[in-house]
Design goal:
Two copies of one chain form a homodimer.
Chain A lengths: L10 E11 L6 E7 L9 E2 L1 E4 L6 H13 L5 E8 L10 E11 L5 H6 L2 E5 L10 H18 L11 E2 H12 L5 H10 L3 E8 L7 E6 L1 H9 L7
Parallel strand pairs in A: 1-6
Antiparallel strand pairs in A: 1-2, 1-4, 2-3, 2-7, 5-6, 8-10, 9-10
Chain A binds a DNA duplex through α5.
DNA sequence: ACAAAAGTGTTACGGATACACCCATGT
DNA sequence: ACATGGGTGTATCCGTAACACTTTTGT
C-alpha cells in the first residue's frame, strides 16, 4: 500500500562538519576536502553525500564519516537542515548537516588521503563551497553551547588525559584562556574524573597525572538531576 | 547545466508545532488537527505538508502555518529533521519540523475550522500520529531553552501586556511558579520594558499597568554584548 | 469593610572570579 | 642551579533565592 505517490520528491544530502583535536597541539581542527566532481570541482568543501532511499538520514551521516575516516560510533549530532532554493548551483538540494567529534590520532590516514582530505585549523579555514562556511559557523556555535553543559569534550580526547590537556581543549573550543586553578577546581568538584597513578611526562619535567572520565558515574548522577556545567 | 541527475530523490515534508497563548488564560496551547487523508486518517496530527520543488523548506513551513492560521511573519524556528526509515507508514518521508509562536487571538478561526484544527492544552495532549509526540516534546524543550535567553516570549503576547500576564506566560512555559518580586525586578532591570500610562482593569480592581517590549532598544543592547536572561 | 490582585525591599547564601606562590624534575 | 610546566588556597563580589506586608479600588 503506497500513499503520497503524486507528490514530488527532492534530492536530499547530508554534510559533515568533522571536528578533531590532538591533545598535544592546542587547536581545534576541521576535516575538509578538495571536491573531485562537478560543480565546483577542485574547491574546498565539507564531506557530504546523498541520502539513499533505504537509509535514514542519521545512517547517511554515519556512512559519510566512516567513508572518510574509517571511524564508527563517533559522537555525532544533527546540526540543521539547509533548504534554500539556490544553495547548490548544481540543482535543488536540501542538505542536513551533522557535526562529529573525533580524536585526531584515531582516523584512517589512507582513507582520508584517498578522498583528498586535510585537517585545517579553525583559524585558517579557507572559503568553502556553497553555504559550507555557514554550516561550520553554526556547528562551532552549537559545539560551544554543548560543551558547556554536556561532557562531550571527552570525545575529543583519548581515554587518559591530563587536566592541562583538558583545559587546552576547552581553551581551543572557546578561543579564550581559563584560570587553571578555577578550571581544575570546577572539573574535579563534579567527581566525574578518576585520577590514575600514571603521569604524562612528555610535556613537562614534573609530569601531570592522567585522569579518565567516568561515564557510568555521570549517567548515575544524571538520574539524580545533576547538570554538567563548565 | 544539470548535475546529480543519477541520484535518487526522496519525499520531503515539513511539520509545524504551533504554540499559542492567551494572556487571560494561564496555559500554553498547541494547534493540532484531525487528519483528513490516509494513512492514519481521523487521528490527531500536527499540521504538515510536502515541500515543493520550487520552494525552500522555510518557505514550506511558512506556507503551512499560513494555510492553517492565516498568519504571516510569525516567529518560527527550525526544530529538527526527522529522517528515520519507518517514521511514516505511508512511505519513506523525511520531515523537517518547525515550531511557531502565535498570539491566540490573532489567528483566522474560519481557516482553522476548515482544516479541523483545535487548540489543545499541553497538559491534555492526546496521542498524535507517527513521531509527532516526539516532535512536540522536542519543541517544548527547545522553546524552554530559547525563552530563557531570548526575548521570544513577547511573540506570544499582545503588544501591550502587564507584568503579571508576562509572568503567567513564563509560568505556563516552564510549568513552575516564580516569585513575583524577583520576576518583576529581573525583567525591569533589563530596561527593555516600557511602562505605559494605561492600566489593565479586567482582572483586578486595582488594575495593572501595561508595558510594551522595546525591540529597538533590545537590538541596540545586543550590539553592546548584552545577553537577555531570565 | 472587605476581598482580590498589584506592587514593593531587604537579607542570606553560594557560586564565580581574581589572584601569586611552591613543587617536582630533567638538563 | 635553573628553567619549565604542574599543582594549590583564599578573599571578594554579585546575582539568586527566600520571604511578608501595604496599596488600590470595585462591590
Amino acid at each position: 500500500m503506497k500513499f503520497y505517490e503524486k507528490h514530488p520528491k527532492i534530492l536530499l544530502a547530508v554534510d559533515s562538519i568533522i571536528f578533531g583535536f590532538n591533545e598535544n597541539e592546542r587547536e581545534l581542527k576541521l576535516l575538509i576536502l578538495k571536491r573531485n566532481f562537478e560543480p565546483a570541482k577542485g574547491n574546498w568543501s565539507l564531506m557530504g553525500g546523498f541520502v539513499a532511499p533505504e537509509e535514514s538520514i542519521d545512517g547517511a551521516a554515519e556512512r559519510i564519516v566512516k567513508e572518510l575516516t574509517g571511524l564508527e560510533n563517533v559522537y555525532m549530532e544533527q546540526l540543521f537542515a539547509f533548504g534554500g532554493l539556490t544553495r547548490d548551483p548544481g540543482g535543488r538540494i536540501v542538505s542536513v548537516a551533522y557535526f562529529s567529534l573525533i580524536k585526531l590520532n584515531d582516523y584512517d590516514r589512507e582513507l582520508a588521503k584517498k578522498h583528498g582530505a586535510y585537517w585545517i585549523s579553525l583559524s585558517e579555514l579557507p572559503d568553502l563551497i556553497f553555504d559550507h562556511n555557514e554550516m561550520v559557523t553554526k556547528a562551532l556555535r552549537k559545539l560551544r553551547i554543548r560543551a558547556r553543559t554536556q561532557p562531550i569534550g571527552f570525545e575529543l580526547l583519548p581515554e587518559k588525559f591530563t587536566i592541562p590537556q583538558l583545559q587546552g581543549l576547552y581553551e581551543a573550543i572557546y578561543q579564550t584562556p581559563f584560570d587553571k586553578r578555577n578550571f581544575r577546581r570546577k572539573l574535579l568538584s563534579m567527581n566525574l574524573l578518576e585520577k590514575l597513578d600514571e603521569k604524562e611526562k612528555e610535556t613537562s619535567k614534573k609530569g601531570a597525572f592522567y585522569y579518565k572520565f567516568n561515564q557510568e558515574k555521570y549517567e548515575e548522577l544524571l538520574l539524580k538531576g545533576f547538570n554538567f556545567e563548565i
